[in-house]
Amino acid sequence: MTNSISSAATDWEARLSSLLPLFGHRNWIVVADSAYPAQSKDGIETIVSGKEQLHVVRHVLDTINSARHIRANVWVDQELAFVSEIDAPGVEDYRRELKTGLHGARAESIPHEQLISRIDESAQVFRILIIKTDMTIPYTSVFFELDCEYWNAEAEQRLRQAMLVSDSK
Q: Which pLDDT band, with edges at 50, 70 and 90, does 4 fall under?
């Protein structure tokens, strides 16, 4: 698979819908601002929505939430909390609207470079979808790290423990 970049003519909603049944835990979907870089790693597909970012965030989250097999861990750039209204007019409204747009989902924040590194590392084995928006405020990309809806970390830990006990017999 090669890295691909599609134009705004691509129906991003249809592309998201077609990929979601294929995606599972360890895949990522990124709703990016307009300056987000086109990454060159194979496995990363970038599409341009031509739409307002919060609209795309809400749509992606609703689509993930309607899937039976996955859920999302939501990540945002830690830098977003420190971007000033003086340097980026509209950022205060954006931060407020993002909380509402996430429909109660809790977003964790880590530095932008760590998120980019996670995407790059994940793309070595797993597919990533980046949906660029018309957003022109820095550090506003929203990262959806997909996870299994019907299996959680506690269940996995119990499974691994049972396997260790079985191996020791």
A: low
